[in-house]
Amino acid sequence: MPDPALPSPPPELLAARVQDPYPYFAWLRRYAPAHADRRPGRPTVWQISRYDDVRALLTDRRLSKDPGRVPGYVPGPAGLNRHVVHADPPDHTRLRALVNAAFVPRRIARLEPVIADTANRLLDGVEEHAHVDVIADFAAPLTFRMICTILGVPRELDDQATRDTLMATISPAPGRDPARVEGDLHVLLDTLIARKRSGGADSAADLLGALVRAGDDSGAMSEAELRSTAYLLLLVGHDTSMNLIGNGMLALLRDPVQAARLTAPGAGPGTVATAVEELLRYDSPVRDATFRCAAEPIVLHGRRIREGDIVSLLIGSANRDETRFPDADRLDVTRTPNDHLAFGHGPHFCIGAALARLEGAIAFPLLLRRLGAVRLAKPAEELAWRPARVMRGLTALPVVRA
Fold it and tell me: How do residues 216-242 score in pLDDT, each as one tens digit?
């Protein structure tokens, strides 16, 4: 229920939050930078919208990542929430150390030829097509294949059925039984882990195999943590990069002048890298930071956040804060400096940031060059966005050759 002492968000902005959250975010930053969303029978959720507040709270130890502090709150599929995103120190420190090595920039950089080859092969497959879906034909298979490569998912499980099982846990298909979705997911994870256990020493060469060995040989990871971590890495390692490519391509298609800068003569790696940072800021693939709750009372902008209240740090809003980014609602692929928060900040900074950046740096210029003169197949306002709480991504990005 709204706080009677404060203005309530306009209903039309609330209704449009999935399709276009930015007018709602702008209203929050101006009128209610610490806004309490209170609903009967649910925990209070505080929406924090200004850049300085979001950045500070991302490292504030008064916020906990443990969903167990909020009675009755279920953050995801049953039995799959014992991972690094839902852990405080010392568990967070231990779990992060187990996966960090696979995502360090120098190791990710070795994937560049693999990513480029995969991307070109996907575009080869649609070269003669008049209609292309940038998500289904390119972004989804590219990013899923890369995280499967890092984890060591067998090729026969690196397919559409596996991806659909994962994505259904955050964006359920209409009419699909949630219990069946969770059951299918558990079967998938059991199969992956069993394959690694039966694969001998060679299985330890990939990340999932190494995690299995860490649990089996030294007890560094429990079985519940192993299953949860496998689920998290498969989902987030794919979804974040897919959204970056989809959201970024939409922005570029809507602004041909900016798009042309990525393929202009002399546009080198530095130009592209700067553009990727701006595309991360402009329409962030992660709209809201992952779960946090108050471990003790916090006072912010005169409002008292109680222990146990959920605190939603609105990354998408922080990245459009006009006090931090001049002309924040305008795409500018040459923008520097660009201290956005698309990957978070502090101890929970996104493990997969280097992978997402590399995939974006390869994908954007390649798509612009190889697709050539294309336009949106429908007005941007009619494109559908997935109604996920944390992520922001399109269900499809259909284009037609001009």
Answer: 888 889 999 999 999 999 999 999 999
Which tokens hold the place of 402?
A: 């001009």
Structure tokens at 38: 């209170």
**Cα 217 from Cα 238, distance rounded (Å):** 29
Answer yes or no: is pLDDT of 313 > 60: yes
| CA end-to-end distance (rounded Å), the chain | 49
Q: What is the mean pLDDT of residues 320-342?
A: 98
Residue 4 has pLDDT above 70, yes or no: no
In three-state form (DSSP H/G/I as H, E/B as E, the rest C), the secondary structure along 187-237 is: HHHHHHHHHHHHCHHHHHHCHHHHHHHHHHHHCCCCHHHHHHHHHHHHHHH
Chain mean position to CA 345: 14
Taking the CA atoms of the chain, what radius of gyration do you get in angstroms? 21
208 vs 158, more confident:
208
Beta pairing partners, 391? 286
Q: Which two tokens stand for residue 344?
A: 């978070």
Whether this model's pTM surpasses 0.90: yes
What single-letter amino acid sits at 328?
Answer: A
Helices and strands in the chain, H and E counts: 15, 10
For the segment 40-51, the average pLDDT, to the nearest whole number, is 94
pLDDT at 63: 98
Using CB atoms within 10 Å of the CB of residue 245, give its burial: 0 to 12 exposed, 13 to 18 middle, 19+ buried.
Answer: buried
H or E segment at 258?
helix 256-263
List the Cα angle 268/273/277 in 5-degree steps: 150
Is there a contact between 345 and 354 (Cβ–Cβ < 8 Å)?
no
